[in-house]
Design goal:
The chain is an alpha/beta fold and about 500 residues long. About 25% of the residues lie in helices and about 35% in strands. The strands form eight sheets. Strands 7-3-2-11-24 form a five-stranded parallel sheet. A hairpin with a 5-residue loop joins strand 25 and strand 26. Helix 1 runs parallel beside helix 7. About 40% of the residues are buried. The structure holds dihydroflavine-adenine dinucleotide and nicotinamide-adenine-dinucleotide. The site of dihydroflavine-adenine dinucleotide (FDA) has 35 residues, from helix 1, helix 7 and strand 27.
């Protein structure tokens, strides 16, 4: 059993959606030549399916008639059945028996904007729900619903996990036993959340321990929040997931304690001074920080639910729910031993065209380690949505118009929004740091430049306007020269604006 496509996008996340739009815009394929394979499915949107099979002996011939009906669309279901049964009355039959089977059908999910899961999706009121945040609305572009893919002739093979890949034969084997072959493959498998089990923490599969990578995780988190109004949550990890989920939990009126091993939050990016501002802000919203330690185990009730988190320093933190954000691993395993990997970045190594060591295979998004021209060709694997969108589009351009497509020249861009705060960062956080602006206000406007070898390497800004964010991105892109650090500090944001 098998199907053949010219182009296959493996993975149905952010990068896949943007790659599909780029294919559609460039028009470089015919109907049925392009497919997206994604394992993602949502149990919350699952549907109870009624399968009614009628066996009728009609004028001596045994007929079998099967009707599949959605129970979620109740009216349609009753109508469908009534019509079906009344149709039978007009026939002459001597034997009729029917079997009814119900089964749960996982709803399959077309590519969506993953960042919404830790922001709009968790709001207590007016929460974002699909189909409202399918790609590519995050970039203020078209909303790609399943109807759009159908109209564009792009096959969606959803709820389907690829179990193995054979790069030499150009085939993928799915969990349903189907072999899908391709001429060109785009790997967009993203990453998976690291689990506490991987750090030797026992009992971390309890029903009130939540991770956040996909829509099923987000639904579990929403249900956990609803089950303990006014209760206690322990957030493990002080990175992006920890910070954004802690803000969402507080907004849902749940008390939060954050636990992480570093001296301050967002250790991969923030300076101690920047982190101090956010920690103070979170504290003013009722969040408690427990820093420089990790959890060792859980206390549970008789139903297996976590009731407390036990820390290495012996403290017990009461918990009605736990949210874990302790980093990710890129989903590279299907291709290990077949494609060259970037060991330092734990990703699939690609060139400036996003092409892997096999010329028919491209890799984009969280899984791809690609050269950053601005960093003198240094290879990086970025775990951010802007990089997923741009690498995906660039790969499609490289595939369809190789001679016209130059190597990608990407300016790394990260952002976050929590409470009423909002920051952006461009470039690399290397070198000496100069802070600027007002770090004291509750509606702040402050930032930092990272200066490496006398030039701006990175810039961070909280509370900026569109023009101000644009200005800091430009000085990073230009690697603006810094003659005097004291002068830079004095000029602050003005340095970027007047450049
Ligand atoms: P992505 O993870 O989006 O998609 C991978 C897809 O591949 C999934 O659909 C997966 O099921 C599928 N897949 C994997 N293996 C498969 C297999 N064997 N068979 C079939 N399918 C398979 N970034 C940012 O810059 N700003 C932000 O605010 C946020 N916010 C944010 C919130 C949350 C909750 C998360 C989890 C992440 C973010 N990010 C972010 C990061 C951003 O979402 C991330 O960088 C992109 O989603 C990466 O896009 P990809 O398409 O590479 O992977
Ligand atoms: P992260 O790398 O940002 O942070 C991981 C945190 O977990 C760190 O504070 C780390 O010290 C801590 N940690 C590691 N091991 C631990 C342990 N054993 N016990 C306790 N703490 C431990 O990863 P994340 O927050 O899990 O985010 C996952 C992914 O989602 C990342 O790729 C991130 O880029 C992405 N994301 C991005 C955004 C954004 O860009 N705004 C928002 C949400 C998620």
């Amino acid at each position: 059993m098998g199907r053949a496509f010219v182009y296959v996008i493996l993975g149905g996340g952010v990068a896949a959606g943007y790659a599909a739009l780029e294919f559609a815009r460039r028009g470089g394929y015919s109907r049925g030549e392009l497919c997206i394979i994604s394992e993602e499915a949502s149990q919350e949107a699952a549907d109870l399916i009624l399968m009614a099979t009628h066996h009728i002996r009609l004028n001596g011939v045994l007929l079998r008639y099967t009707k599949i009906t959605s129970m979620q669309k109740q009216n349609q279901c009753c109508f469908g059945l009534k019509r079906h049964i009344s149709a039978l009355r007009f026939c002459y039959f001597d034997t009729c028996f029917a079997s009814y089977n119900f089964f749960l059908y996982s709803c399959q999910v077309a590519p969506y904007e993953r960042p919404a899961l830790s922001k709009g999706y968790l709001l207590p009121e007016g929460a974002a729900r699909l189909p409202g945040f399918h790609t590519c609305v995050g970039a203020n572009d078209e909303l790609l619903t399943t109807k759009w893919y159908k109209e564009q002739g792009i096959e969606l093979v959803l709820g389907t996990k690829v179990m193995s890949a054979d790069v030499r034969r150009k085939t993928l084997l799915t969990g349903t036993g189907e072999t899908i072959s391709y001429k060109t493959l785009i790997i967009a498998t993203g990453a998976r959340a690291l689990k506490l089990q991987e750090f030797g923490i026992q009992g971390s599969d309890a029903s009130n321990i939540c991770y956040l990578r996909d829509i099923d995780d987000a639904d579990k988190l929403v249900n956990a929040m609803k089950s303990c109004p006014g209760g206690n949550a322990v957030v493990i990890g002080g990175g992006y997931i920890g910070m954004e989920c802690a803000a969402a939990l507080v907004t849902n009126k749940i008390r939060v304690t954050m636990v992480f091993p570093e001296k301050h939050c967002m250790g991969r990016l923030f300076t101690p001074k920047i982190a101090e501002y956010y920690e103070n802000y979170y504290t003013s919203k009722g969040v408690t920080f427990v820093k420089g330690t990790v959890l060792t185990s859980f206390e549970k009730d008789t139903t297996g639910k976590v009731t407390a988190v036990i820390l290495k320093d012996g403290r017990h933190l009461p918990a009605d729910m736990v949210v874990v954000g302790i980093g990710i691993r890129a989903n590279t395993s299907l291709f290990e031993g077949q494609l060259v990997m970037s060991m330092e970045n734990s990703g699939i190594k690609v060139n400036g065209q996003l092409q892997t060591s096999d010329s028919s295979v491209y890799a984009v998004g969280d899984v791809a380690a690609f050269p950053i021209k601005l960093f003198d060709g240094d290879i990086r694997r970025l775990e951010h949505v802007d990089s997923a969108r741009r690498t995906a589009r660039h790969a499609v351009a490289s595939i369809l118009e190789p001679s016209k497509t130059r190597d990608i020249d990407y300016l790394p861009f990260f952002y976050s929004r929590v409470f009423t705060l909002s920051w952006q960062f461009y470039g690399d956080n290397v070198g000496e740091v100069v802070h600027f602006g007002d770090f004291t206000s509750s509606s702040p406007r402050f930032g930092a430049y990272w200066v490496n070898k006398g030039r701006i390497a990175g810039a961070f800004l909280e509370g900026g306007s569109r023009d101000e964010y644009e200005a800091i991105s430009v000085v990073v892109r230009r690697k603006a020269k810094v003659a005097n650090m004291a002068e830079l500090e004095k000029q602050g944001l003005g340095f970027a604006i007047q450049e």
